[in-house]
Amino acid sequence: MAGTTRQQKFAKLILKEISDIFQRDKRGILGNAFITVADVRVSPDLSVAKIFISMMLEKNKQGVLDKLNTHKSEIRKALGDRIRNQARIIPELIFILDEVEEHAARIESLIKSLNIPPATE
Predict the structure, then answer these.
(1) The CATH number of the domain covering residues in 5-113
(2) How many CA atoms lie within 13 A of 46 on its CB side?
(3) Could you report the per-residue pLDDT of 23-67, keeping only the tens digit for each?
(4) pTM of the entire structure?
(5) What is the pLDDT of residue 41?
(6) Cα(79)–Cα(69) distance, integer angstroms
(7) Measuring CA to CA, how many Å separate 43 from each of 4, 14, 66?
(8) Contact, 89 vs 42, CB < 8 A?
(9) Number of neighbours of residue 43 by Cβ within 10 angstroms
(10) What's the CA gap between 78 and 72, in Å, rounded?
């Protein structure tokens, strides 16, 4: 997580609150999708928050991402209701699919599939 201490604190606050919003999901935005907020990066002026979403078990990842983008204003309003006493600006939310776990799993399977003979002395 790069940036100033102020950016990092604000990003942690947004990560915590967005995670809680998704966990409680009273509006049924996500349906049965299980998603994780992997990371949040905030612009230097705190007006834009890039939220990296991980969906390990989800088959239709792009569909869930489209749902999030469709309901972005509702999510931003819920975030604003939670952090209005701690922040002057409620940032614009940009949802990005985080594929770090998928890449790690693919690399791990490639390594396991290697046929390396045992070393002889």
Answers:
(1) 3.30.300.20
(2) 16
(3) 887 567 777 778 889 899 999 999 999 999 988 777 888 888 898
(4) 0.78
(5) 93
(6) 15
(7) 10, 13, 23
(8) no
(9) 15
(10) 10
